[in-house]
TrEMBL record:
Protein name, as recorded: Glucooligosaccharide oxidase
Superkingdom of origin organism: Eukaryota
Gene Ontology MF, one: FAD binding
Cofactor(s) this protein requires: FAD
Keywords: FAD, Flavoprotein, Oxidoreductase
SUPFAM superfamilies, alphabetized: FAD-binding/transporter-associated domain-like
Domain FAD-binding PCMH-type: 20-194
Native species: Linnemannia elongata AG-77
Length: 454
């Protein structure tokens, strides 16, 4: 337990996004479900809000409480892992980070689960909010592959939750469960034997081909093979299509041929054939970290958001993106990186084996993550680049105002934005009313609470 008077408190309260500087009343690191349940019951008895923390990567800093005075329950000691080789179901403690989890799965028999590329992200929030990742089109989201959970409720009761035991809660936790309903301490996740060969792909185009490549990417996205989960990265000087193909280099080249037929030949291509674990390690290195050591991943200062599109973006929206990427903010204290990433959905993401609170997003063509990150000098206010923040706000307002996909703005709940138009409906759509009913049934006193909790 660390409190404001503890020597470790100031370090313990830090989260991945250093522009946030919350001061929780305490941070507790339970070592067992019984310890966690006792902490929840104590906080509830004193009407203290509780925020779970698995990895601390909330875009809005909610892993640090999201406000002053909360009790943060950090699950970093819940590192348990086991796999049933008959069913390929993995038992995973909520304190596992993605990189070490990939290592454990690989060493247990060359298994994988569909999840993200950033090795320092905690499995807890990632899985509960959807869990998009490198092989989602083949295997679905991470939340779709959860077959059971252990959760401590607001009264300190420990529940085993699955499709037959508390099914409404099971539905809600998979896609909308990040911190709103209770403290999830353990997951049972369907894993898969990795294919023998995996190919990572990079195709680079000059910036003056932005319109051509973006238009082609949207058309290609509707028919791309499910073995490929590609994304398109827009930097200041380059357009890059990249991703992980589950198969040989020859088959990956065939999958990309239909894109190249629309765009013409890229400036440069790279097809790197190897194992699944090597592919995951490659993407981790691009994030500046290693799978086995996610804590080598540097904390950042950033303002990132998301939008979901059910159809290709309009020329007007692409012009807005181009304008802001061509006119980046000035950070007088160091580096600034502006980014827009398109990630193709579809495939198994649209066809899960059971319903969940993520269902309102089925049918998405691709997501867009956009914004800026910059070098930091210290945590808190010293990490705020005013020009970067202003640039990000103007970019968001203009792109959101031009949003052309459907009646209401849609966004991805694992990339929460505190002041997003359309509020929680942007994340949960028509599921919101049912989610509120589930919330009232398991946490009527609203003990599990942060600024954008259900």
């Amino acid at each position: 337990l660390s409190t404001p008077s503890s020597p470790i408190y100031n370090n313990d309260r830090l989260v991945f996004n250093h522009i946030f500087d919350h001061t929780p009343s305490a941070i507790f690191h339970p070592s067992s479900e019984a310890d966690a349940a006792a902490a929840v019951a104590c906080a509830a008895a004193h009407n203290v809000s509780i925020v779970p923390r698995s990895g601390g990567h909330s875009f809005e800093g909610y892993s640090g409480g999201g406000k002053t005075g909360s009790l943060v329950i950090d699950l970093n000691l819940f590192q348990q892992f086991a796999i049933d080789h008959d069913t390929a179901i993995a038992t995973v403690g909520a304190g596992n980070r993605l990189g070490p989890l990939y290592t454990k799965l690989w060493n247990a028999g060359e298994y994988l689960v569909p999840a993200g590329s950033c090795p320092g992200v905690g499995v807890g929030g990632h899985a509960l909010g959807g869990g998009m990742g490198m092989v989602g089109r083949k295997y679905g989201t991470l939340s779709d592959n959860i077959v059971g959970l252990t959760m401590v409720d607001a009264n300190g009761n420990i529940w085993k939750v699955n499709a037959t035991s508390r099914p409404d809660l099971f539905w809600a936790l998979r896609g909308a469960g990040g911190g709103s309903f209770g403290l999830v301490t353990e997951f049972r996740i369907q894993a898969y034997k990795a294919p023998a060969t995996v190919t990572t792909v990079l195709a680079m185009y000059p910036w003056n081909m932005l319109q051509t490549v973006t238009d082609a990417f949207g058309m290609w996205a509707e028919n791309v093979a499910d073995d490929f989960t590609p994304l398109m990265y827009l930097g200041r000087d380059m357009v890059v299509v990249m991703g992980t193909f589950l198969g040989s280099q020859d088959k990956a080249q065939i999958a990309l041929a239909s894109l190249f037929a629309l765009t013409g030949s890229p400036l440069q291509t790279n097809f790197d054939e190897g194992t699944w674990y090597q592919a995951a390690a490659k993407w981790a290195e691009m994030e500046g970290a290693k799978l086995e050591d996610p804590f080598a991943e540097h904390a950042r200062s950033f303002r990132l958001r998301s939008l979901l599109y059910r159809q290709a973006i309009s020329d007007r929206e692409l012009a807005i993106i181009s304008k802001y990427l061509n006119n980046p903010p000035n950070n007088p204290n160091g580096r600034v990186t502006t980014t827009v990433i398109f990630e193709i959905w579809g495939g198994k993401i649209d066809n899960p084996s059971s319903t969940s609170a993520f269902d309102n997003h089925r049918g998405t063509l691709y997501s867009i993550q956009y914004g800026a990150d910059w070098s930091l000098s210290s945590s808190g206010s010293g990490s705020i680049c005013t020009a970067c923040m202003d640039w990000s706000e103007r970019f968001a307002k203009e792109l959101q105002a031009a949003y052309s996909s459907g009646q209401g703005l849609e966004a991805y709940q694992n990339y929460m934005e505190r002041d997003i138009p359309n509020g929680l409906r942007a994340y949960y759509g028509d599921n919101l009313s049912r989610l509120i009913k589930v919330k009232k049934s398991v946490d009527p006193g609203n003990i599990f609470m942060f600024p954008q909790a259900i």
